[in-house]
Amino acid sequence: MVMCALSQTKGQPWVSLDSIAKRHHLPLPFLQQIARDLKRAGLLNSKEGMHGGYALTRKPNDIALSEVLEAMSGKLKLTQCTTNVACPIESHCLTRAPWQRLHQFVHQMFTSITLDQLQERRL
Q1: Separation between Cα atoms, residue 100 and residue 79, nearest integer Å
Q2: Cα distances (angstroms) measured from residue 113 to each of 56, 85, 99
């Protein structure tokens, strides 16, 4: 929500989380935690003071949805089977390959969707 709200700000360089919270009826502490994670991941800049707030570090068409999700939740993984961790039943497991294919599909989908596509509902 924070990233989409910031991608809508035409001509407004800095937007306060308070204004986003009020506009979208979301609790400010919730948005503050999200903004910290997004800033730590290099997706947001912040500026303190009277005319401060938050801004995207790149244009919305240069930010993939996968980057936003990973900034907030870590690397995307559907199950332990989609990681490179050794599995004791890997040699005879019938579900590992389908899980890995599904993971690749989901990851590619989220990587192919940018903030501007999400904003304009061009999916």
Answers
A1: 9
A2: 16, 28, 21
Domain 2-119, architecture per CATH: Orthogonal Bundle (1.10)
The answer on pLDDT for 61 being more than 70 is yes
Q: Is the pLDDT of residue 109 over 90?
A: yes
φ/ψ of residue 22, rounded to 5? -70, -45
- Mean pLDDT is highest, among 1-10, 54-63, 86-95, for 54-63
CB neighbourhood size of 89 (10 A): 9
Domain chopping of the chain, boundaries: 2-119
Cα distance between residue 11 and residue 64, in whole Å: 22
Q: Global pTM?
A: 0.81
- Residue 46's beta-bridge partner residues? 54
